[in-house]
């Protein structure tokens, strides 16, 4: 299928009911990622949403956020900073606990990953409850960075317009 619209992109994402727990509808992006045209189009659309902003670092959350944040950082001429699950980073970190649709989890970032005052774009693949994004924004703020005025996302960005999350405009 040729990618012509946001609906074409949406059609490439598989919905898996009752995963990882009963009552949860999981959006499986692997079906989109295996299509090179669709994957390129998503990165193009996400990058276009922020191309005129001055961004020093792009922060992506484990693990699906990495897939989109790293190529966006490259296209924007910015650095990439990973936010990982607890215990996955080797140097000194700060951490935050956040809510999921089906429980809680902890994220961490290297304490020296962001220099105070740097402009940061937070990127994830989907926005469910917003807990992962809110937790990441909290980490970025604690490192005294300036979260960019938006958080770009694939299906969220492509399908929902703009919203505000924790006083950060979210391109979703």
Features:
172 residues, alpha/beta, Rossmann fold, 6-stranded mixed sheet, two-stranded antiparallel sheet, 6 helices, disordered C terminus
In a nutshell, what does this entry contain?
The chain is of the alpha/beta class and 172 residues long. It has helices at 6-11, 30-33, 36-48, 64-76, 131-142, 155-160, and strands spanning 14-17, 25-28, 57-61, 79-85, 93-100, 103-110, 119-124, 146-153, 162-165, 168-171.
Please explain how this structure is put together.
By secondary structure, this protein is of the alpha/beta class. It has a domain at 53-171: Rossmann fold (3-Layer(aba) Sandwich), CATH 3.40.50.2020. The protein is 31% helix and 34% strand. It has helices at 6-11, 30-33, 36-48, 64-76, 131-142, 155-160, and strands at 14-17, 25-28, 57-61, 79-85, 93-100, 103-110, 119-124, 146-153, 162-165, 168-171. The strands form three sheets. Strands 5-6-4-3-7-8 form a six-stranded mixed sheet, sandwiched between helices. A two-stranded antiparallel sheet has the order 1-2. The protein has a two-stranded antiparallel sheet with strand order 9-10. Helix 3 (36-48) crosses helix 4 (64-76). The longest helix is centred in the N-terminal third of the chain and has 13 residues, at 36-48. The radius of gyration is 15 Å and the shape is globular. The two termini are 24 Å apart. The model is unreliable at 149-172 (pLDDT under 50).
